[in-house]
Amino acid sequence: MILIHCPYCEEARPEVEFAYGGEAHIARPVDPSTYSDEQWEEFLYIRNNPRGRHHERWRHTHGCGRFFNAVRDTVTDVFETTYKAGEARK
Amino acid sequence: MKRFSGFNLIGEAFRSHQGWPEHWPDKAPKASYDAIIVGAGGHGLGAAYYLAKKYGITNVAVIEKGWLGGGNTGRNTTIIRSNYLYDESAHLYDHAVKLWDGLSQDLNYNIMYSKRGVLMLAHNVHDVQSFKRHIHANRLNGVDNEWLTPEECKAYCPPIDISPRTRHPVLGGALQRRGGTARHDSVAWGYARAASALGVDIIQNCAVTGIRRGADGAIEGVETERGFIASRRVGVSAAGSTSLVMKMAGLDFPLESYPLQALVSEPVKPIFPCVVMSNTVHAYMSQSDKGELVIGAGTDQYTSYSQRGAFHIVEHTLAAICEIFPIFTRMRMLRTWGGIVDVTPDRSPILGKTPVKGLYVNCGWGTGGFKATPGAGDLLAYTMAHDEPHKINAPYNLDRFRNGRLIDEAAAAAVAH
Fold first, then answer.
1. Which ipTM score applies to this complex?
2. Least Cα separation, residue A76 to chain B (angstroms)
3. Which residues belong to any copy of the Rhodanese domain (chain B) (predicted)?
């Protein structure tokens, strides 16, 4: 099982304590009513799905309960780093 | 190709079977083809075969990064069924089931399609209502599916525990008798052999490294590890790697790739006569002709290309199996493995044209692509030959993520799909 470092608890905990939250840094629409169908498609459905470095959200569901971001390699599943929500993309 | 027949078999018996030729020759790529398929899994090889057989395009190459049938075609649990809720899905998957019937004769290759039945167990009132709704919807679409009482479930599949004292009592089941299993490797090999005999070149160990587009944006061919190969028609059938191939053509796709695991037990004598699925407990199982119990596990929660999965997923699956089939609690598991499945937002495939002229796609089958192998191959071939989708795969276009006409089997099929 993968160990994930929670940047709030400052502790590496087993994966089962966490919930995956999908690709990170996808900005919510500021003014949704002005969004075109293409923009909605991009926001809701299009994903980067890279082979290699992936920015993603996790939530420490069975711990502090807070969302944070992580960079993980999708080939080796090794976490490069985790950082608090709101911090700049790493 | 030397045909398999009783006559040839007896003839070869007198020659110590030295006269059988190779199933398909290993070809070097030509400079150009009328059509190129990227990905030599069951779907891609099927598309090449039907292009040559039904649609008259025989100058075809199938390009594969690894070895033939080494991706999800060789990693699935070989289950075949078509008991899907929505009309579009029922038509799509039943098209495949109709082709499975008679495929061995068509390919002159025994793919071991066994109509042993797929039984989906209901454990609560919601399951009962949902499965009965599926049964009625299936019947309206001409797909066989019937309701069994717990006693009938037990009679059909004796290892099931139907005692009312279990944690998840069996309240009944939906049985599709035409469902069953096939031998996955034979499907890939049979299609490869038959396609090769019709003139299709199968090029293995040759990764696609780029897709070349002309000034008008149309497809001109593919860059590979063994040089540029020209073609005006390219069909991509690359499962978990589809996002990567599409990026080469400048397209972003609504796909995410997840590891999906399966495992087999040590081989035992025949004990398990059909396929049993339980969505609520999340377990499904069948027994292969070798005697191994073949068990499907779930996907990991995170995207990955690692072709393995987390250990706790296996643990969870086996806990569910032991719950429904206490008889197997002392079985030992022999092997586990993972494949990378490409999942769409609505859990239905994308099969048709792309915004790039001459580029076609067959992807997004997620956790349930094997059952569709002949149908997906045929429909991709049809779409490439006519430059427009067949009416069966027309709803499975890319535009649905823009116009909102989703085929939301994610909601309809619950866990197992």
1. 0.96
2. 6
3. 36-79
